[in-house]
Write a structure and sequence with these properties.
The protein is of the alpha/beta class and about 700 residues long. The protein has a domain at about 585-650. It is about 35% helix and about 15% strand.
Length: about 700
């Protein structure tokens, strides 16, 4: 595989594929790499290095030869345009850009901060009375890099089974917009969806509370969790009281509830809060700094803290390891850090041998292109709730797998989350497209029998229950392997099944607090969660990639796998390059007449723009957003308007990319659904259906399994 592109997403993609065992050749250009030698070492670890100067004809020829010989080319045509490249037959070419290969913003080389602004992400983070806050690490680049790796593994499967290559179009904008399912429901019903500090837009209580010695995150999402919390507080009277009994009622009275919790936490230390809350299975955690993470016991327990040695400078550092290696025990990623251009001779020999031996016999974006989705014929079972496991199976469904969502009696907890249409919430619909619901009570032996039959006929089982829940029902990894040796099982949890905190529940905000995301994301100096469920989403994306890789390994070896994804691993790894560089101000928010603008500049440079007023806490301008962007462009400053979620959803770019599609359920209701960001050219994914009523597939599945066993 050849990595040739300036975007961080290209490096992220190449790194993940190298961790999965691919041989990745990194093309380095003198004078354009990371100034920090340790940061370069982190980005090249496990890869082959060749240094090529585009102004030298021999180096251009070497680059072209490497491109022709590679099975996969990863590039970023907007940030690092190269000479026109004609892909070879059966070759996979993945282009990661800010806005993709279509739409009115095609070709704009926007960096992560401006994509956060244009996609609606920035407007969802921070305090509602203040300026929007950028997520403190390049979420869009990291997310796009993970999805690109998943798309490449999928395309590899297609080439292996059908003999065709294809192009892949990954847009940071698509990936960022796809991270908004907790906010889009409000857009659908015409209500504003914006930032809420450390609260959750759909659940309460959910916030950061001050305690002796620091801050503690407390998160609840169900009525049962609320009742347990009330018992701990000695306020059983509130558990079922009018105005407090349901989640919707609590969201409306969150200020009152936050005051009750704050009065309790301020009497305790952070540790005491966590001990007592954990004792009644309430998700909670401290807010950790990057420095504190270097001694975090769960990261150490899972082998996620690894030494980095740079041979060029002789420097060393401790950085996050591979979330894939922590999840898939059979992986052993290389820790080799090559010197610049160290592998030129090796790669020249490899190119020569491949050119002599290779005989392509298929077509690119042709052959059987479009004849079937990439994962057609695979069956996926999901026992999921909220975001992580549902995200995984939703994308697998769009790629063509048959997906059954197994729900307990009464349905998954987010089914009724408001706003709703009929008896289903829009968040639930956004999170569960391309699935059919099966209602099973796995505490009941009759339903366990049906589950066993389903599992024997399935390729993937993905779940994000509290660690140990399936095992207590008789379905630990060994039992699953006994039932189906070829099944790829993936459990996703806050801290992993193999954890220093066994059985500890965790929601997204807790993991953000314990992974450095909140330390890096600050509103007026206060640690603040990303408005989107960043840790959930990153955990789900890593789970998706791990499952796709697990299927490839299964097909090669004949054996399935047990994958243990930790959201904390994924989130910490996503912030890893900031462990080596002090966080710096990447951009500035300016309050304009009709909203905010994000400018890639420092305050001093912006101060020269006409009409700008520099205040103690913010910059203001009497211009409209569009007028300010034009004025900044005249001064050589790149900027973009901060769009609200609704503005982003209705933007020409989102419409051109069809980021929201509409599908109907048998009851005649129409549901808006998120499109799939993995744009494979020859075998494109497709969102085909909205999830229906609880247990919609029970009769059909029972009949099919009866016939199969007859």
């Amino acid at each position: 595989m050849m990595q040739h592109g300036a975007r961080l997403a290209v490096s992220v993609c190449g790194t993940l594929l190298a961790q999965l065992g691919a041989e990745v050749a990194l093309v380095e250009t003198p004078g354009t790499g990371a100034a920090n030698t340790l940061r370069r070492a982190a980005q090249v670890r496990g890869k082959r290095s060749v240094t090529l100067r585009p102004d030298r004809p021999p180096d251009r020829a070497a680059r072209d030869a490497l491109m022709r010989a590679a099975d996969v080319v990863i590039t970023s045509s907007d940030a690092s345009p190269a000479d026109e490249f004609r892909a070879q037959p059966r070759q996979i070419v993945c282009d990661i850009t800010a806005f993709g290969a279509s739409g009115p913003l095609l070709g704009l080389p926007y960096a992560d901060a401006l994509v956060q602004a244009m996609s609606g992400l920035a407007d969802t983070t921070g305090n509602p009375q203040d300026a929007p806050t950028l997520i403190g690490f390049p979420f869009c680049e990291v997310s796009a890099g993970i999805y690109a790796a998943a798309a490449i593994v999928t395309a590899h499967r297609v080439r292996r089974t059908r003999g065709i290559g294809q192009s892949i179009d990954i847009a940071l904008f698509d990936c960022a917009f796809g991270a908004l399912p907790t906010f889009l429901p409000f857009h659908v019903i015409g209500k504003p969806a914006t930032r809420s500090g450390n609260q959750h837009s759909l659940a309460a209580p959910w916030n950061a509370y001050s305690a002796s010695g620091g801050w503690v995150l407390i998160c609840t999402a169900t009525d049962e969790q609320w009742r347990r919390l009330c018992g701990l507080l000695g306020r059983e009277d509130l558990a079922r009281a009018d105005g407090f009994a349901s989640n919707a009622e609590r969201v409306a009275r969150r200020t009152e509830i936050d005051a009750i919790l704050q009065n309790w936490t301020r009497t305790l230390t952070v540790r005491e809060c966590i001990e007592q809350l954990s004792g009644v299975d309430i998700a909670c955690g401290p807010i950790l700094t990057l420095e504190q993470l270097q001694k975090e016991k769960n990261l150490a327990h899972r082998g996620m803290l690894t030494p980095l040695d740079d041979p060029a400078s002789g420097k060393s550092a401790l950085i996050p390891g591979s979330p894939l290696a922590a999840a898939i025990p059979r992986l052993a990623p290389s820790l080799r850090v090559p010197q610049p251009d160290e592998d030129r001779a090796y790669l020249e020999q490899l190119i020569a041998s491949r050119s002599a031996a290779r005989a392509y016999d298929g077509g690119r974006d042709g052959g059987q292109a479009g004849s079937a989705p990439p994962l057609q014929g695979l069956r996926v079972l999901e026992i999921g709730q909220y975001t992580t496991a549902p995200l995984v199976s939703r994308q697998l469904g769009a790629l063509g797998a048959e997906v059954f969502k197994i729900e307990a009696p009464g349905g998954e907890g987010s089914r009724p989350w408001p706003p709703v249409q009929g008896n289903r919430g829009y968040f639930f619909a956004f999170s569960n497209s391309d699935k059919r619901s099966i209602e099973l009570d796995l505490r009941n032996e009759g339903d366990r029998v049906l589950f066993r039959k389903l599992l024997r006929k399935s390729d993937v089982l993905v779940e994000n229950l509290k660690p140990g829940s399936l095992a207590r029902l008789g379905f630990d990894a060994n039992a699953l392997r006994s039932l189906n040796p070829r099944v790829v099982y993936c459990g996703i949890s806050g801290f992993g099944m193999r954890s220093a905190y066994p059985g500890r529940p965790a929601f997204d905000t807790v993991v953000q607090a314990m992974s450095g995301i909140m330390d890096l994301t600050r509103a007026n100096g206060v640690p603040t969660k990303a408005g989107i469920s960043a840790a959930d989403i990153l955990g789900g994306e890593i789970g998706l990639l791990a499952i796709l890789a697990g299927l490839e390994m299964r097909d090669a070896s004949g054996e399935g796998d047990a994958i243990d994804v930790s959201m904390q691993d994924a989130a910490v790894w996503a912030t890893s390059y900031l462990w080596l560089d002090a966080p710096r101000e990447r951009s500035v928010m300016v309050r304009c007449a009709d909203g905010f603008v994000c400018a890639e500049s420092d305050r001093a440079r912006l101060a020269s723009l006409p009409g700008l007023v520099v205040q103690a806490t913010e910059l203001t301008s009497s211009l409209s957003r569009n007028a300010f962007v034009e004025a900044a462009a005249c001064a050589g400053i790149m900027s973009a308007p901060v769009l609200t979620v609704s503005e982003a959803a209705l933007s020409p770019q989102a419409m051109a990319r069809q980021l929201i599609v509409e599908k109907s359920t048998p009851d005649g209701r129409k549901w808006p659904l998120l499109n799939c960001p993995l744009r494979l050219g020859a075998t494109p994914p497709a969102v085909r259906r909205a999830i229906g009523e609880l247990g919609e597939a029970n009769e059909e599945v029972q009949l099919a399994l009866t016939l199969e066993s007859a």
